[in-house]
Amino acid sequence: MKIDYTEFHKEKKDFLTKTDKSKKGNIDKGIRSLVQTINSKHDCYTTSSCSGRIVLLEKRSEKKQEASWLFSKHGKATSSEIKHALQKTGKHQVWFRQESCILHIRALNLVAAKKLLDAARISGFKRSGIVSIGKKTILELISTESIDALVAEKGRIVVSDDYIKSLVREANKKMDANEEKITKLCSLVGKL
Amino acid sequence: MKIDYTEFHKEKKDFLTKTDKSKKGNIDKGIRSLVQTINSKHDCYTTSSCSGRIVLLEKRSEKKQEASWLFSKHGKATSSEIKHALQKTGKHQVWFRQESCILHIRALNLVAAKKLLDAARISGFKRSGIVSIGKKTILELISTESIDALVAEKGRIVVSDDYIKSLVREANKKMDANEEKITKLCSLVGKL
């Protein structure tokens, strides 16, 4: 498929000037430099981004839309923050989660996509791939750090205070590793 | 890049007749039909596959190679199996993990890759993408079910028996969801 360079740039400009429709409403601080670096390139732009986060998710069912956050932080957490948020536990299951950075990037073409994919892989974003080809070339870059641990059920916290401390300590370590990868990717993309 | 159809087929034949070098040494039962269906197509073949599993991983460090499995099952588990395996806990951290199906597929070209990617997405393999383009076109298909929960630290089990029961019950539910997605993908690929 022929890629129209002028059309791509118009769409990039339109996209980056429109209002941020995410729940948070702006780009996470921890990923701002990387997003700016990607968007400074002529052949790509970010369409969504999350720097990584620690959350407490109360699930009413397996459906994503039937879940609510008791806690969400785009950075390291403390066990007292988690314990405090857990007081809001309802009657459903609550999961403690550490999620790593996720980025969606539109690339001008497959050449541009390949360059980004290689940089992502070198930086440790192991779950990265081209998720759409054809009219638009879209990449998804994800790192592999994660924690998914049950912490409450039927309105009752099912883990000890010490367990929460350990979980938070491990989640914070993973957030550090995630941050290092973001910095590395930012540096590599800057040199493209 | 020009794709040589004869060369692709020679490489496919060579790959599929060589000895399975995975630790397990053969294709997981839960994914055998899907692998056979993919390999029956003229324009793709699987290069690695895992049907999904429940594991207990003892980590000596954050490095993947410095971890050992206390338990690994490509299917549903029971809490007594997990409790029994936890008796082998050494002095390091042990994590209970449920991992979903992961497949690597080489496609003849981007047209073949796109067809598989669309089928994967419809089947619920949300973390799917083209991970290599150029000389070889490779896809990675992954589903999103996962559990990563700390269960032992410094030689001590840090969760209750009831917690292990809940974790196993949730992991088995996720294994069921994973199996449904494999069946759906197998049916869709069959129709391609």
Question: Tags for this entry?
Answer:
homodimer; 192 residues; alpha+beta; 7 strands; 30% strand
Structure description:
The structure is a homodimer of 192-residue chains. The first copy, chain A, is of the alpha+beta class. In chain A, 38% of the residues lie in helices and 30% in strands. Chain A contains five helices and seven strands. In chain A, strands 1, 2, 3, 4, 5, 6 and 7 form a seven-stranded antiparallel sheet that branches. In chain A, β4 and β5 form a beta hairpin. Chain A starts with a helix and ends with a helix. The mean pLDDT of chain A is 92.
The topology string of helices and strands of chain A comes to HHEEHEHEEEEH
- Let me know the average pLDDT of chain A: 92
Range of helix content of chain A: 25-40%
Report the strand count of chain A: 7
% residues in beta strands of chain A: 25-35%
Distance between the termini of chain A: 24 Å
Integer-rounded radius of gyration of chain A: 19 Å
- Unreliable stretches of chain A (pLDDT < 50, length at least 5) are none
Q: Largest beta sheet of chain A, briefly?
A: 7 strands, antiparallel
Please state the oligomeric state of the protein chains shown.
homodimer
Give the secondary structure arrangement, pairings included.
Two copies of one chain form a homodimer.
Chain A: H1 5-17, H2 32-39, E1 44-59, E2 67-73, H3 79-86, E3 93-107, H4 110-122, E4 129-132, E5 137-142, E6 146-153, E7 156-157, H5 161-190
Antiparallel strand pairs in A: 1-2, 1-3, 3-5, 3-6, 4-5, 6-7
Helix pairs in contact in A: 2-5
